[in-house]
Every structure is written in structure tokens, then in C-alpha cells.
Design goal:
2 copies of one chain form a homodimer.
Chain A (H helix, E strand, L loop, with lengths): L1 H4 L3 E5 L8 H11 L5 E5 L5 E2 L2 E2 L13 E4 L6 H11 L3 E4 L10 H16 L4 E2 L5 E4 L4 E4 L8 E9 L2 H14 L2 E7 L8 H9 L6 E6 L5 H11 L5 E5 L4 H11 L6 H10 L3 E3 L2 H13 L7 E6 L2 H13 L3 E2 L4 H10 L10 E2 L7 H12 L6 E7 L7 H12 L5 E6 L6 H9 L4 E2 L3 H19 L2
Parallel strand pairs in A: 1-2, 1-5, 5-6, 6-7, 10-11, 10-12, 12-13, 13-14, 15-16, 15-17, 15-18, 18-19, 19-20
Antiparallel strand pairs in A: 3-4, 8-9, 8-11
Helix pairs in contact in A: 3-4, 6-7, 7-9, 10-16, 11-16, 12-13, 13-14
Chain lengths: ~450, ~450
């Protein structure tokens, strides 16, 4: 699997100079993504493709081939697989569709034929019917979407059963400034399924968070068994669609998988230590926090807010999601009472609004709450106002120096261009993880704690 | 109330050139917001403020004063109110805090004193303890946040009990490209409460959607009675926080209002035809759709997707939220079957992916679904891929010509810079309303239908 995701050489079988062909887009992805290894276009009808010398077949390629990306029509795939096996190719990304998922029984036969070839030669295969995969740490864009090369590097690995969801999450991540280690489109899982990926990622030092998008799988047991072994070592979060009747039926038809009761799936996920998430947005939000924040030791949250309203929205979500808006220790409470006038919310949530003009008071409040043993995590909510324009700058050093000794999840929001750079700087320094609404920040804190419980009951 | 929100002249009582004073920021908001009427700074200690001739008091101002924005300390407010009454001021925005919401019983006495003055003089007062209000159609930024002038004009009016939530929603709207008619911060509601605002907005031709943010109110009955009269004429959507214990207690303390069971509130909202929403994000998403889309006649939804995964995520939300993924009529289904290969999802949801290279097929599918009598609304989900780069351009004319004869809610997403202008153009032309995830698009469609049911049972 290591050679599959970190190849020294990549052959594109079905490479093309014709923009109407997927082999064109794959070549563009590879050549434009900064990949430093050898790229060999393979096409019997061309001598050069995108300026690179082309081979007529894998068999005649010079040197070793670690990874073959295959984009030829389905009926030609068995022959290509045999050539790959003979050549000693160490991994295959099979983009071609038209196997098990089509109505024609010939598709299932072809699927079995190529599976036998790959398994006998011990070649792991991503696909068929996949958009490909991207390993951003290797600058390897082995997909038909060149734009994936624009993704930031990060520590989240997404393993997805849907190309559409991979594209959705990838584009969302670009807009949210979230980076990935890898995105792997499993497609119809010839011999690499979720279980094999989770097993591989368990030992991948560059992956801190494993994110799964699941529609319906035959080998659910293999996944949960593998996840159970991993429990507590690395967070695994999953989003499974098909909770409704229509989605379930569509999933069956689309992926060639068995139907499965959504509840049975999610129940078994929980037992295996996989945190189940119910939307793409929360999936990315939670992955971002798990990759950039510690996990709370308990459910006790402090809500420090620049305004009362957002803190109430956050408190509602906290309470609904199993967090506790803790009572501060007496020392903390006395310190806050000294720093805020009586008309403010001073217990928890704390409305720091009345102190905006006094940087030392704001710092004093945050510091004492950081030190409070009852507090397992802090939600910091600040809406810009003229009175607090400089307040974020005033607490930057404090937040950086603390460096999330406990999770610090924030919703710091201003009109575009005012605080964006400061927030990004705080995120990059590891001081906090920021979200666009108080509710999303609170939900993420709740998910951190849900994972904390999973980890502690390992 | 009309003069309050559309004044010909505005006095700022407590205007200042000192950036440490709210009177400075109010002046900046007014002068920088493009307001075309007369602005009179009032401050006994200055002759000019921000280049404008200042008056020493309201009494000696030349000409009539329609609106007075008051930012003097609480104890001076009764005298200012008496002057305003004598001068014939027609509306007041009272930014000053320190009345009913403070522990000191003196605050409640002051509150009653100024309420009596205002009521006797028949002056509607926004506040006290408010950030102010903005009427974007009058270029009137009567708030202490100059940045609100950057908001786009639109047809949504937000009436909010929290300045923090007003700022949050305003800044979110700037980032989402959503415009407002007005944002009104009610504060502690001296004599203008939700009921008065809803009553006023019912006849405001520039307000298409009324959005309420509520923490806790004494006069819930007045609101629901007013809303009931409005039922079906104009959508009212509300977000009430305080569903948890902490939020409820904080709300009582913060706003000086009675506690109230969250469920009783939301139940009475539903009976009064107010659509209750459970987060700031969904509040804005829903307001955007209600301002830019028709309301479906029934729960039947067609999901047209460029990829299978996102359509499943959308179907799950649709089914959970009470929409129906309808069965197409035979004619529609036959047309789609002619245009898509058997391996695609062809019933509903429809996976248009295999037809991306064939613009006429995509158009044919969309057109036949538009014409299907079983379909009350369309969800269009398109994730960018190299194969469909030109597909959005290919359907633009069709979508514009149809002009949302039924709601067309979309999630059309690409890497930044590829489709953004096209999507914005489609939104501005009224062809669709776009959201960043399939689940949010589906939830909005469900809320449109929930409002449709409210309207039809008027």
C-alpha cells in the first residue's frame, strides 16, 4: 500500500492529449500537481503526450512502475491488469467504470476476472469506478480532477465511497482553508475497502484524523473490527448516507452494495469507536478540530463571549449535545466579578462585552477561566464591534502562549478583511480552531468530547 | 414608525469626535453610510463634530428633527426625552444601556420614567440597550457599527433582541452575499416590541421576509396575535434561543425578560404561522430562499444531481424533514430513460453524471422534470469536475427562461473562481437559490414547504 500512495513512478494507461478523454485530465492532474517522480504516459497510438515520451504498453516501459493509473475501457482492463502483474506494478488506481455496478451480468464477470488477477499478483487496487486519489504530502494528484492539486496540505485523510462527496468536501475545504493528507475515492472496492484503508492509515504518521464517507458496504464487519483495534489511537469519524428509504435504495443501485439498515450501521460504528456524523458540514468541521485541537478530558465547557446572544445560541447546542456549562470554582468567579460590572452575565456564559475597552480585564477573565479545573474546554465567541476592534490583538499573545492546553474552539467573526488574517494566524499557531457560527463551534466541542468518551472507554 | 425608519433629518444626541465614545461611532455610521438627509450632531461642548455644525441641545436645533439617536448616559436620558418630546421628534433610537436590565432598582424606575415620556408624546423608541438599527433602502445606518453600511440591499428585515446576533447575522450575510432591507436591534423594548415591528413590517413593501431573533419576551401573546393576522401574507421566521436551562437563565438575566418554556414559545409560534428555525445558519439560509424563491405547492421534490453521493445526502435530509422524493410521471421517466444509460440512477434522484458531455441530454432531463406535475420543487446538485466544466453554461439559458416557476434550490460548487460568477449571475436573475452543501439546500427546500403548509392553512 505504501508504494501505491507514495510511488516513485506512475504510468497512466490510457493517457491522452484529447481534452474529451479522462486520460487527458489524469495527465493534467499528475503533471500540474508538482509530482516529482517519473510520469509515463501509456498509449499505443502516441509517441508523446503533454510533452512526455509515451510508451505503447506497460510491458515495454523502461524501468519499474510503482503505480499504474488505468483509464482504458472496461473490456480492455483484464489485459492491462495482466500486463501490470507481469511488469511488477505495485499498485493500481482503476478509474474506469462499467464493472459490478452495471445491470449487465458481464460487468460482474469482468469485476471477478480483474479481482482474481490483482489478488494473485498481490496488487492493491483503488477502484474501479473512482475519480482517483490524491496524496498531498507527495504532491501526487492521481485523479481526473486537476483542481484537487489546489488543496492545502494537512493531516486529515478522507476515504470516500463517492466521487461526488469527495469533490464536495474538497471544494468546501478549499473555501474553509482546511488541508488534507490524502483523499482516496474507493469506488467499487476491488480489493481495497474501508477496512484495508483504516488499517493502513492507522500506521500513517501523516494522518491524524481518518474521515470516512460511506454509502453502503458489504464488509461492514471488517471495518468495525479494524476500527475497534484502532480505538483510542487515532480518531475515525464517519458520515453514512442512506438513512432514508430513497437514499438507501439509490445507494444499493449506485454502488452495487447490499442494503443495510442505517441504524444498524451507525450503532455498530459507535461500538467500534467510530464517531458518527450527520452532515458534510459537520464532518469537515469536526475533522478540522480533531486535527488541530486536543480532546477534552470531560464535558465541562466555559463560554466566553463578547456578546450575550451568541453565547445563548452556543449554550443551547452544548446542553443538547451532552456538554455541561460548568459552574466555575469560587476563585474564578471572584476574579471575574472583580473584572466585570454587575450588569453583565458573569457566571457562565460570561459576557465580556462591558470590558472591551479594558484589555487587561479581558485577559484576566480568559486567564482565570483557562486555569479553572472545572473547565475542560473553552468556547470563545467574539462578534466584531467598534469597541472591540483592538481586543483580538490584545489577547493574541495570551492565546498563543496557552496553546490550547485545553480545547479552545471559537467563533470570531467580523466583516470581511478586518480580523481574517489575525484569526488565520491564531489557527496556524495552534491557539484555537475557528468556526463561522456559535452553533457550529459548540457542536464541534460536543463532538470533541464524544470522541473523548470513545477514547477513554477503549 | 415610518418617520423613525425613513427620517428626513437625524440628530445624534451625544455625538462625539472621540473614538472612545459610542457617539463617535454613531456619527461615523451615519456620515459614512451614504445617508442623504440632514445630520445634526448634538453636544453641549462642541461647535463642530466630524465637520458638521453641532447644536448644544435638541431644543435649539434648527428645523424639524425626525429621528434622534441618543447615546448619553442613562441618568441624562429623561431630560433628553423631554426635550425631544417638546421639539416634536418623531422617533428615537436609544442606544444607552443601564435601565431595566441592571440589578439596581433605579434602572427600572428610569425605564418607567422615560417610557411615560415617550408614550405620552407618542414617540416610538428603539431600545434602550440596543446597537441601533439600519435601513439599507434609506442608506440609514443608525447604529454604533459603521461596518453595517457595507451590507447589501435586500428584502429581508431582521428584528433582533440581541446586538451580538445582529452582528453575527450581518457579518455572515456579508460573506454569503445576502442583502437586507433593515436590521433592527430591539434592545429592551421601551415601547417598540416584536408585535409592533411585525405589524409595521406587514405593510412595508420593501420587506418580503420578516426574520425574528428572540431570547425571551413578556409580550409573546401580542406577537403571536399580530403574526396570526399576517398569516399567509408575508413569511415570518423566528429563531428563539434559551432551549437549554443555562440559556434560559442567561436570557432572563440579560434581557430583563420573564423566563419562558422554550417549547411553549415554539408551539405558539407554529400556531401563529411563524416558522421556527433552530440555528443562525438555517435562519439566514431560509430567509434567503423565502426572499428569492416561490413557495412549493406540495412536498414533492425532484433531485437532479451531477453525482450520486450528494443526491443521497440531500434525499436523507428531504425525507427526514417531511419532503417526498416523488415518483416521476411515466412521460418524464421515459424521457430520462432515453437520455441516460442504464447504469445511471434514472428514477429520482437522477444522476446526470453520465450525460455531462451531452448538453442537450442535460437540458432534456431538466426540462422534462420542470414540466412534471408531480414535482413541486427541484434540487439541483452539481459538483465541478473536468467533464462538466461547461455544463453549467449550457443550462444557464434554460434555467433563466424558466425563472423558478417552481422553487429551484441548488448546491452548485466548484473550486474558488471557476463557477462563482455564473452562480451569482443565476441567483441575481432569479433562476435559482444556491447553498454550499446538499444538506443545507435540502433543508431550505423543506423549510419552504413548511412555510407553504403554514400559508395554505391560513
Amino acid at each position: 500500500m505504501k508504494a501505491l500512495f507514495n510511488p516513485s513512478s506512475v504510468a497512466v494507461i490510457g493517457a491522452s492529449d484529447n481534452p474529451g478523454k479522462l486520460g487527458f485530465h489524469v495527465m493534467k492532474s499528475l503533471t500540474g500537481g508538482g509530482y516529482a517522480g517519473r510520469i509515463i504516459p501509456v498509449n499505443p497510438g502516441a509517441t508523446r503526450i503533454m510533452g512526455l515520451k509515451a510508451s505503447s504498453s506497460v510491458s515495454v516501459c523502461e524501468g519499474e512502475i510503482d503505480l499504474a493509473i488505468v483509464v482504458v475501457p472496461a473490456k480492455r482492463v483484464p489485459a492491462v491488469f495482466r500486463e501490470c502483474a507481469a511488469k511488477g506494478v505495485r499498485g493500481i488506481v482503476l478509474i474506469t467504470a462499467g464493472f459490478k455496478e452495471i445491470d449487465d451480468p458481464g460487468g460482474a464477470d469482468l469485476h471477478k476476472e480483474i479481482a482474481d488477477i490483482a489478488n494473485e499478483a498481490n496488487i492493491p487496487v483503488i477502484g474501479p469506478n473512482t475519480f482517483g486519489m490524491i496524496n498531498l504530502h507527495a504532491d501526487l494528484n492521481a485523479s481526473f480532477t486537476p483542481e484537487f492539486s489546489r488543496l492545502q496540505k494537512g493531516t486529515i485523510t478522507l476515504v470516500s465511497q463517492s466521487g461526488g462527496i469527495s469533490h464536495l468536501l474538497g471544494f468546501m475545504a478549499m473555501r474553509m482553508g482546511i488541508g488534507f493528507r490524502m483523499i482516496v475515492g474507493l469506488g467499487n472496492r476491488l480489493n481495497v475497502d474501508f477496512a484495508q484503508m483504516v488499517d493502513f492509515l492507522a500506521d500513517d504518521p501523516d494522518t491524524k484524523v481518518v474521515v470516512l464517507y460511506i454509502e453502503g458496504i458489504d464488509a461492514a464487519r471488517a471495518l468495525t473490527d479494524t476500527a475497534r483495534k484502532l480505538r483510542g489511537r487515532k480518531p475515525i469519524i464517519a458520515y453514512k448516507t442512506g438513512s432514508g428509504q430513497v437514499g438507501d435504495a439509490a445507494s444499493r443501485s449506485h454502488t452495487g452494495s447490499m442494503a443495510g439498515s442505517h441504524k444498524i450501521y451507525t450503532g455498530s460504528f459507535t461500538q467500534a469507536g467510530i464517531l458518527h456524523i450527520d452532515s458534510t458540514e459537520t464532518l469537515l468541521d469536526t475533522a478540522k478540530a480533531l486535527s488541530a485541537s486536543p480532546v477534552p478530558d470531560g464535558p465541562g465547557v466555559a463560554v466566553l463571549s463578547g456578546q450575550a446572544g451568541p453565547s445563548m445560541a452556543a449554550c443551547d447546542v452544548c446542553e443538547a449535545e451532552g456538554l455541561k456549562i460548568v459552574r466555575f470554582t469560587d476563585i474564578t468567579q471572584e476574579t471575574i466579578n472583580d473584572l466585570l460590572p454587575p450588569l453583565a452575565l458573569r457566571s457562565n456564559p460570561v459576557d465580556m462585552g462591558p470590558a472591551w475597552y479594558d484589555a487587561s480585564a479581558i485577559k484576566g477573565i480568559i486567564q482565570t477561566v483557562m486555569d479553572d479545573d472545572n473547565v475542560n474546554g473553552i468556547l470563545l465567541l467574539m462578534m466584531f464591534a467598534s469597541a472591540n476592534r483592538d481586543a483580538l490583538g490584545g489577547i493574541t499573545d495570551l492565546l498563543k502562549a496557552w496553546g490550547q492546553q485545553k480545547p479552545l474552539i471559537s467563533c470570531i467573526l467580523a466583516p470581511p478583511g478586518i480580523w481574517d488574517d489575525q484569526v488565520k494566524d491564531l489557527e496556524l499557531s495552534g491557539a484555537l480552531v475557528n468556526y463561522p457560527t456559535p452553533e457550529r463551534a459548540a457542536k464541534v466541542m460536543a463532538n470533541l468530547w464524544k470522541y473523548g468518551k470513545i477514547r477513554s472507554t477503549q
